Amino acid sequence: MERLPKIALPVMFIAVLIIVLIFKSSVTIGPGEGGVLFEQFGEGIVTDKTYSEGLHIIAPWNSMIIRIVRQQSISDEMNVLSVNGLEVKVNGTIWYEPEYDNLGKLIKTKGEDYEQELLDPAVNAAARSVVGRYTPEQLYSSKRDVIEQEILEEVTLLLKDQYLTVKRVLVEDVKLPVTIKNAIEGKLKQEQESLEYEFRLVTAKKEAEKVTIEAQGKADANKILSASLTDKILQDKGIEATIKLSESPNSKVIVIGSGDSGLPLILGNQ
């Protein structure tokens, strides 16, 4: 067996070392992610540059902190108090994203777990502040969209200049104690039944007014017609009707004298 040249071992060692260095120095950032460089022998987190998607070569003694920079969401259940001190459970979802260009500043000031350090406390504080303005009835029924908007505004104010942006707040469910919930549902049911009853009364009243107006119209029309029918007009109408009847081929007309009203008497018929 031939011995390897003396130069072979150092070359192999250097080759292996280069491969290890390349492996340690190459960093791949995936879709929707951003990277922040941590300089081991420098100032630590680099705050003026965010690395984009793709392959990057860095010094082997440095490291890359990779975080999602696209819009993402978290859901949580919070225990808050209403305006009258009643404990309410609010289930909500928050859509947020870190500021891409300031990802290094965000991580440097709040750490890699900035959701727990920054976002969660801000959302909880905003939810307590907003929900504390409303009664259980308002929270349960018609104020959901208003509450969402107000929480969003509160969170935005709390996170101002914190390099984290909240895009949307969704209140998915408001849970009240069973006794309070049943009381509210009973009250809402009574109000609905009352509204339906009032609607039926209004409808019946309008229908009665319609019938009264129609009857009054007919009475006025008959009154006007009666006032316009004189004896002379009635006689003329009677004569016209008599002539038409006498012209009928199916009857034989014999006129004898006149009736009490001055109209001819018609006798004979086939």
Key attributes of the depicted protein:
3-stranded antiparallel beta sheet; Band_7/SPFH_dom_sf; Band_7; Regulator of protease activity HflC, stomatin/prohibitin superfamily; Prohibitin
Architecture overview:
With 270 residues, the chain is α+β, with helices and mostly antiparallel strands. The protein has four domains: 8-68, no CATH class; 72-176, Tetrahydropterin Synthase, Chain A; 180-228; 233-267, no CATH class. The chain has helices at 8-25, 103-110, 114-131, 136-140, 144-158, 178-228, 231-246; strands at 26-29, 33-39, 44-45, 54-57, 63-68, 72-81, 87-98, 164-175, 254-258, 264-267. A three-stranded antiparallel sheet has the order 3-2-5. It has a three-stranded antiparallel sheet with strand order 6-7-8. Strands 1-4 form a two-stranded antiparallel sheet. Helix 3 crosses helix 5. The termini are far apart. The mean pLDDT is 77.
How do the helices and strands follow one another from N- to C-terminus? HEEEEEEEHHHHEHHEE
In CATH, what is the class of the largest domain? Alpha Beta
Strand content: 15-25%
Radius of gyration: 47 Å
What is the CATH H-level superfamily of the largest domain?
A: Band 7 domain
The overall average pLDDT, rounded, is 77
CATH topology of the largest domain: Tetrahydropterin Synthase, Chain A
Principal-axes geometry comes out as elongated
Helical content band = 40-55%
Number of strands: 10
Structural class assignment? alpha+beta
Q: Helix tally?
A: 7
Spans with pLDDT under 50 lasting ≥5 residues? none
Number of domains: 4
Q: For the largest sheet, list the strands in their spatial order.
A: 3-2-5
Strand count, sense and barrel status of the largest sheet are: 3 strands, antiparallel
Task: Supply the CATH architecture of the largest domain.
Answer: 2-Layer Sandwich
Q: Compute the separation of the termini in Å.
A: 149 Å
